[in-house]
Amino acid sequence: MIIYRFDGSFDGLLSAVFDSFARREKPDALLTPDGSLPLFYDLVHQVETDSDKSGRVWRKLTKVITASARAALTSAFLTDNPEFPILALRFISRAVTSPGVSVETDFSDPAVLTVLKECRRVRGEAHRLLQFVRFQKAADGTYFAMIEPAFDVLPFAVNHFADRFSDQPFIIYDRLRDYGYHYDGAELKRVVISSDGYHMQTGLLSEEIMHPQERLFQDLWRAYVKSTAIMERLNPRKQRQDMPVRYWKYLTEMQK
Question: The pTM is what?
């Protein structure tokens, strides 16, 4: 069994593809730094991420698969599926060695199916982010929202909020990955905030930094949601399916 290890980045994945061709090997597993080695194996190759190698593989990909297939691949790469890296390597390897063949539509190939499946999961999570982000207004006029998405999809969604808010400053922060984006009304910047503050521990603004009218607006929103609910038609199972429980922690309407 041949094992490849890489740094977990997309450039690292492309570098692993390059190495597999250069070494004339077909790895049986492609592991991230926290991946566990199997009990028995013949060789472990540590892939060194190289921008020249990854660039060559990517340029080749632009010639053999469509832009939508490349977008699906990069989206799917954000999945939490530990088997995805090796299947992505096989997908890319097959694509670059099969010019003129529509590899991306060969649904009999497990690697192709995995790329499409994980792409749908990641994009679905990005769409949920647009639905379930709840902002709180701070005293200085900045809107703040904490999130904990299943995948690292904030970069996919943040431009939507910048367009929607237009000239209103906001911060959206991914607590699980400890980074966020600050929009000052004109420019969007990636930020890292100290985790010592109350709002960073709970996702809720404290009374000291909350806008004087924010508590009133939250109460009004909860009252509106409650008044429009039809108790006889409540379906908790359907609710959890459409609104994953992992989002409830930061949803104004789910707080008491």
Answer: 0.83
